[in-house]
Amino acid sequence: MMIITPPTSSSSSSIQTLYFTLFPKRSPFLPRNSQFLPPIRVSSNGFSSRIRASSAVTVEPDLSSKVQDKAEFDIFACPVCYEPLIRIGPPGFNLPAIYRSGFKCTKCNKTYSSKNIFLDLTITAGAKEYNEFKPTGTELFRSPLVSFLYERGWRQSFNRSGFPGPDEEFKMAQEYFKPAEGGLLADVSCGSGLFSRKFAKSGSYSKVVALDFSEDMLRQCYDFIKSDNTILTSNIALVRADISRLPFSSGSVDAIHAGAALHCWPSPSNAVAEINRVLRSGGVFVGTTFLRATSSTPAILRPFIQRITRDYMYFTEEEIEDLCKSCGLINYSTKIDQSFIMFSAQKP
């Protein structure tokens, strides 16, 4: 028989109930032969308490402990219903803390957990039989080979199309992101985290979320991060998510970066509309892509260029501006060099 004598019953029991819902049998972080759950600490009346598993469980104050496993609303939201997720686990926003945590939507009761190195916040997270494939241009980047090569020659080849190189692109993006300094930045379609790591190391943002649909890209991102002690425990998270179903509440993100990504999205209009949804008022969206044609490209050549690049959706500069404005963004501006374009827009 289990006896629990907390200082107050309402807050402790509700958190305990949620904890056992998320972890019904045992913690995935304990050895397989362990019959005990890790301690759960709950906050009540200004001090923390520890629940210990035994034949008779008592709750005793632990005033000296600074580390608490507690339930709290997180920055992430359920991709199904967009309700903020409840998080139970160690405090802090870094890789070790987040991936030792459990997440649950209190509206639809869906639970989410880490896949060893990244948090899976796709709609199909946890599905056992159902699988979903994206268009060829998107699926290509789920390949382990392409993920491995992305920063080992693939990305460098963009220079031939006018891309100025990662360091210069980062500086250009930082100029656009000045209004969002100190806030939450999401690097969507982050790939192997080339820019995510730069944003995290800059110290300009309170939190950086490296987000991609490709599991292998996120694994590559983790491999780069774990070799750099300066960001291994910094304010960065790796999240698997769909660009058309971002796991954030409306108006909760200060800055969104999408490097060389727009042309890979299955539906750019749905993606940009979703970006507008999650940006706060005044939030900044910065993206780069390849132009299908510039204003100087003869109109007669444009249909042929589109056929050659049919696996991806390349646009003209006018089309990108129209896309951003039609999705409700304002203050559109660009920097163009050959086929390279960096564009920026804000949420009203």
SSE layout and pairing:
Elements: H1 9-22, E1 40-44, E2 47-51, E3 59-61, E4 70-77, E5 84-89, H2 95-98, E6 102-105, E7 111-112, E8 119-120, H3 136-139, H4 144-154, H5 166-176, E9 184-188, H6 194-202, E10 207-212, H7 215-226, H8 229-232, E11 236-240, E12 253-258, H9 268-278, E13 279-293, H10 302-308, E14 315-316, H11 317-326, E15 330-337, E16 340-346
Parallel strand pairs: 8-11, 9-10, 9-12, 10-11, 12-13, 13-14
Antiparallel strand pairs: 1-2, 2-3, 4-5, 5-6, 6-7, 13-16, 15-16
Mean pLDDT across all amino acids: 80
Number of strands: 16
Order of helices and strands: HEEEEEHEEEHHHEHEHHEEHEHEHEE
Radius of gyration: 23 Å
Q: Any low-confidence stretches, pLDDT <50, length ≥5?
A: 1-68
Helix content: 25-40%
Largest sheet: 9 strands, mixed
Structural class: alpha/beta
Total of helices: 11
Strand content: 25-35%
Shape: globular
Distance between the termini: 58 Å
Could you provide a short overview of the structure?
The chain has 348 residues and is an alpha/beta fold. Helix content is 28%, strand content 26%.
Polypeptide structure, described:
- The chain is of the alpha/beta class and 348 residues long.
- It is 28% helix and 26% strand.
- The protein is built from eleven helices and 16 strands.
- It has helices spanning 9-22, 95-98, 136-139, 144-154, 166-176, 194-202, 215-226, 229-232, 268-278, 302-308, 317-326; strands at residues 40-44, 47-51, 59-61, 70-77, 84-89, 102-105, 111-112, 119-120, 184-188, 207-212, 236-240, 253-258, 279-293, 315-316, 330-337, 340-346.
- The strands form three sheets. Strands 8, 9, 10, 11, 12, 13, 14, 15 and 16 form a nine-stranded mixed beta sheet that branches.
- The longest helix has 14 residues, at 9-22.
- It is globular.
- Mean pLDDT is 80; it is low at 1-68.
